[in-house]
# Entry
Amino acid sequence: MANITPRTKDYSKWYLDIIREAKLADYSAVKGCMIIRPNGYAIWENIQRILDGMFKDTGHVNAYFPLFIPKSFFEKEAKHAKGFAKECAVVTHHRLKDVGTDTEPALVVDPDAKLPEELIVRPTSETIIWSAYKQWVQSWRDLPILINQWANVVRWEMRTRLFLRTAEFLWQEGHTAHRTFEDAEAEAVRMLEVYRTFAEEYMAMPVFAGKKTEGQKFAGALHTYTIEAMMQDKKALQAGTSHNLGQGFAESFDVKFRDQDGTEKFVWATSWGVSTRLIGALIMCHSDDKGLVLPPRLAPVQVTIIPIWKSQEERRAVISYADKIITRFRDQSIRVKIDAREEYQPGWKFTEWELEGVPLRLEIGPRDMAKEQVVSVRRDTGEKSFLPLEGLEGVIKSTLQNIQKSLFERAKAYRDANTVCLKTLAEVQEFIEGDGGFARVFWNGGKTEEEHLATFNATIRCVLPNREDTNTGKCIVTGVDTSNQVIIAKAY
# Structure
């Protein structure tokens, strides 16, 4: 049924085949933009629901800001403007004019409808949000402001790939305002930990968490923190970032507060975000040549039930049997769906649900009814089990937890097996240009040394946090002793 290119033959084609065959997304009539199909959007809804709860648990609230941003706002923050200038879509007019006939309309831009100021279609919202914060902040009592926005953004990419890089995508962006540098720094680090927890505990995707180098940080930020995951082709995927923006935006938009000592001070800012890129990460972290593989905690359908029958009488009996199981499952918050379609054979259904990544499949036929059992098949391992009806809910919940854990352990074992400690730049280049993976090295080089990595298509993904037990070693480019270690890899 499915037509999926093997990963070993063409990884990029395999990835796009999974998206197509699992009905996650499709290309749109607008070049560079994608249509997120119901299967893909259901995954995004689960991501959104869980993260939204995590944000609110840390004191954040949701708001919404305009899609259109005056161009002059971007010009107020020079570093920020330069970082996004090449990706901005610009609105110059607000009306079309029909110059055709009643039977053959012909629409052109109305030259009389030119906007007094050009508008940028939101690539990120710092500037429009900080223009609002100026109105909201007068005193230290107004701080902190802890706001998140769920929105779409436009970044006019020339080379696109579904979910990973598109001209328009969905995301959340947190924007917070603080009294001190220390408060802003703590917020940026705290939100990175939220992302790390979500990636590992819900996506079953191990990540390295750390700081971006000066050359890789967000435009206009003091510090950028990141989580980096290894995909099955051994490339890195930046899965989430958090930024201490310093006082640049507060200074640009004159956002000041009167502190307790009576002095006026500029506010300190952060921003942080993840996007529908996480769906691409899920695909490339867990899926196989049979199709999509989803961790149970994010799967829209955790269990699918396939009733098997030969006659209409058997069909009615098996579906009635399955309906009672479904009721029990839903009482335990197990997301379950029955596939009782008559136009498809059971084998076709097995393949379809396997392709769509449902973690657990239950098969029920007349013989299973007679034995008061179900047949269980795990998506991750293909393991088949015969489970008694009594206590089935508990066994299923336990199995789903086991699948979640197993997917994380499998992904972590793969990442660790392909992460190597190297001592020289020559070793790093040979490794990256060979089988590839994550090179873990000592580093105290600067922007010039980092730019050399581009000659073999590698970048520093993150600077790992120092621990008390961290050893020192010689930097691979300067030879100077340092405790700083970084991850170098090819990346999406």
Observations:
- Residues 64 and 462 are 31 Å apart (CA to CA).
- The radius of gyration is 26 Å.
- The longest helix spans residues 392-417.
- The mean pLDDT is 96.
